[in-house]
Amino acid sequence: MSSSRLDRFDIYINGVGGQGIGMLSELIVRAIDHSGQVVRGADTHGLAQRGGMVVSHIRKGKDTYSPLIGKKNAQLAVSLERHEAMRAIAEQQLEEGGVLIYYDAVWQPLGVRLGNTPQLSNNDLEDAAERCNLMLIRVFQEDLPDARMQNVILLAEIAARVLVPGVSLEHYERAMEDLMEGALLERNSKLFRSHVRRQSGDN
Amino acid sequence: MKRLEEMLLTREAGSEIMIGNTAVVRAMIESGVKVVTSYPGSPTPEIAQAIMSVPADRNPLHFQFSVNEKVATEVAFGASINGHLSCVFFKSVGLNVASDTFVQLSLMELIGGMVVMIGDDPGANSSQNEQDNRHYALMSYTPVFEPSTPQEAYAMFKEATRISKEMKMPIILRLTTHVCHAKERVAFGTWSPEETDSKSRFDVDNGPYIPITSVSLKMKRRALEKLESFRDYSEDSALNRIVDNHSNKGIISSGTAFLSLMDCVLEMDEKPDILKLGITNPLPKELIESFLRNHSEVKVLEELDQVIEQQVKSLAYDRRTKTRIIGKEHIDDFIGEYLPDKVREIISRTWPGTVEPSHEAPSSVEIPARPAQMCPGCGHRSAFFAVKSALKKIDITVADIGCYTLGAFEPYNLGQVLLCMGHCSGTGSGLSLFNDERRVVAFIGDSTLFHAGLPGIINAVYNNHKMTLIVMENGTTAMTGHQDHPGSGSSVRGPATKISIRKLLDALGVAFIKEVDTYQQTKLKKLVEDALGFDGFSVVIARHPCMLKFTREQRRKLKTMPKPVRVGSKCDRRYVCVKRFACPTFQRGEDGSVWVQEDLCIGDRSCMQTCPVDAIIPSE
Ligand SMILES: Cc1ncc(C[n+]2csc(CCOP(=O)(O)OP(=O)(O)O)c2C)c(N)n1
To answer: Is residue B359 domain-resident?
Structure first.
């Protein structure tokens, strides 16, 4: 059986410890669940410190067993940092034609800070994405008051562009209500909606 | 907002998205577990987090972090022989620490029942090895339940408590990292709380409980008899099941390897049959024999060691089956997690042409590694920066396990050898023998000191070893997620007796003890120099609260946080802050300048003293 006929959509998420990957991943998992589709996944966070890599796998659809995604399997990759976006490409997480959406934050890896290797530019990323036949989406919001909201901006982009099939705005909002309350929920919902509007206006 | 506490305590059956570590806590509550003990370690800390989401006064589970895994096992054992259902959980290597106690359990009549829940870590995602703890099960005659998913972890926990109580024997629930952290919708049952029961049921007549000389052999016989009747149960248990694809090829598998296999099988035209074992000790011999007889070839697809394979082969020999049995063929087959790609590789090698080998091609894209880092403001960083300046290149540094292990890596390179938790004073003592030139310095965290560090320290005092121990006291068990320990002054139940490390070392007769806050780098350097000059065992307590924990608590309490530092015009690009102090907040501009990543800086200012030209300044 060809794998393309299977009911399966794999999402690979990565970033740096402390960027709120856990929350972003849980929001997407719950949004998929609210859409009535089967979902499973796993966070991999060997050493939980700030500054190490954090990865989360999400698998949607009935034809999935392992919570972890095989190489070149993901249809969508979400990165919270520029170097980690490149890592998703280097590690061949995406299938050909897959979509890589990233928030353009820069937290320099150790090698860059030690001066052993240069910082990556957005051009480097565009070149690599083109060579590997991936669709690249850069996300950045200049006036963001708190870096801990970058994950919600990414979520809004994913929602507005319907990057996860069958999952709509309402499902994402219900996921936010599952996981947040009070002022935090208000702040993030507002940011989410305004970014969705902004995005839809742009297109 | 959905609250964990509400889900854990609801009387009604339901379902919720959760990780394996949470699912087992719902199972504990439904099955009437009374006492739960642990020592923190990945991949299990979220079990404790879930338990602690319910305040102690309405928590049906009496939970504690014990000082180490051995004591945790003993506390759970004591509760069980007193008639109260108990559970101890810890990470893979925790079983090594607990083993002296653990191997005795099956000899005992555990009248209350007891589940030993282990978080094994194939792939060594967060451990110093990937040991296969099923070996301990074999040597101690202990049954093993092995779930593949959070839903199974929930169901197997409940079944384990039922059987353990009935047969008064310990049962291992062997979780692995990606069962603990896998997430899915888990269906759970009803819960009817039991009356509080403070009755002591310990009775020597239930025993014997003193395994001495010939009595111990009688106890062993009873353990073996129990194991055989458990095997009968396992023959008919639905936890072992066959996925029937009407093939003459078969595969025996378990755990998460089974899930990877199912993913692989989806893409195969000729699908093999699968015997999925949920109980991996003792093996159901009749079931396996009939599976062998019904297939011409059987592959044993098993993560880590050949525990199932060797038993299946031995059974095939005894029962004279003709089936070709294919086990591990390469050293690679013993190493690492059986992730979907690895399993695909193995199946395509076992039966060429049935499935495409792994998709991965050599990568053309280069990317710098991102190793784990000490957090901004971490007191350990200040300590390493200062200690390094007190040492000579030839001196020997001994690491131990905790956040401070990260001192072993670039750019500090302090810590050249590591075995396991608490080893450093013993290893350091040995390194100091027949060694006149190279001074020996070891680092130990506070939780590690209480856990397994004391015997090594006592030995160094008693045998008068010349070495220096630096106690990296941050008041918490940081690496595993900030659990309290005997030196932190609080416990799961609130304020607790705080055991002073200083007084403890004093009482042990350590003749040189100095204390300093690690942010006082000049003083720390001086104290380390003095300690190195001391003729005997010397200790420097290098103290600073864990700043990740501190900052999180401050964020909750305060509206405004300290401002980040900035790099002023005095900077003449010596790069001490980026290259040697190496706080991740300092970043390099393309033009060679240094800038502060404000999303990371916590405004602790421990960096300011490290700049030789005072270019790091507070922003006002
Ligand atoms: C036998 C064993 N149990 C548990 C662990 C998991 N573990 C890793 S580091 C650590 C403790 C670290 O605490 P501490 O010594 O206070 O150092 P910190 O991380 O706070 O710097 C633990 C429990 C382990 N590696 N081995």
So the answer is: no
pLDDT at A184 > cutoff 70: yes
With cut-offs at 50, 70 and 90, classify the pLDDT of residue A1. very low
Collapsing DSSP to helix, strand or coil, A43 comes out as strand
Task: Tell me, yes or no, whether B390 and B466 share the same domain.
Answer: yes
Q: How far is it, in rounded angstroms, from Cα B461 to Cα A4? A: 67
The residue that leads in pLDDT, B609 or A144, is B609
Angle at A25 between CA A21 and CA A30, to 5 degrees: 150
- B447 and B392 within one domain: yes
d(C-alpha B190, C-alpha B213), whole Å: 46
Query: Which pTM value belongs to this model?
Result: 0.97
E strands of B342-492, at which residues? Answer: 396-398, 440-445, 467-473, 490-491
Domain count along chain A:
1
Smallest Cα–Cα separation from B603: which of B565, B557, B555, B551?
B565
- The whole-number average pLDDT for the span A49-53 is 76
Quote the crossing angle between the two packed helices B379-390 and B521-533, to the nearest 10°: 50
The last residue of one of the domains, among B177, B202, B236, is B236
Classify B514 as helix, strand or coil.
Answer: strand
Query: Is there a single domain that holds both residue B404 and residue B546?
Result: yes
Q: Which domain holds residue B299?
A: 241-350
Q: Is B295 in the pocket of ligand 1 (CB under 6 A)?
A: no
Testing the interface with A: which of B367, B597, B600 to mutate, by most A Cβ within 10 A? B367
Report if residue B115 sits inside a domain. yes
* pLDDT for res A147: 86
Helix (H) or strand (E) holding A94: strand A94-103
Q: Which atom of ligand 1 is nearest to the CA of B472?
A: 21
Cα B447 to averaged position of ligand 1 atoms, centre (Å): 7
Tell me, yes or no, whether A183 lies in a domain. Answer: yes
Query: Is some CB atom of chain A closer than 8 A to the CB atom of B256?
Result: yes
Average pLDDT over residues A173-195: 96
Closest of B237, B339, B350, B340 to residue B286, by C-alpha = B237
Range of the domain at A19: 7-202
Q: Is residue B373 part of a domain?
A: no
Q: Where is pLDDT greater, at A119 or A47?
A: A119
**CATH (domain of A38):** 3.40.920.10
Q: Tell me the residues of chain A between 11 and 70 that have a Cβ less than 8 Å away from chain B.
A: 16-18, 26, 29-30, 33, 39-53, 63-70
How far CA B354 is from CA of B272, B301, B324, B344, B592, in Å, comes to 10, 16, 18, 10, 55
- The number of distinct structural domains making up chain B is 4
Half-sphere exposure for B251 (CA within 13 Å, toward CB): 24
Does residue B374 lie in a domain region?
no
Residues B426 and B327 both lie in one domain: no
List of chain B residues with pLDDT < 50? none
Q: What's the pLDDT band for A148 if we cut at 50, 70, 90? A: confident
| Global ipTM | 0.96
What's B58's domain CATH number? 3.40.50.970
Are residues B367 and A178, on separate chains, in Cβ contact within 8 Å?
no
How confident is the model at residue A2, as a pLDDT?
Answer: 46
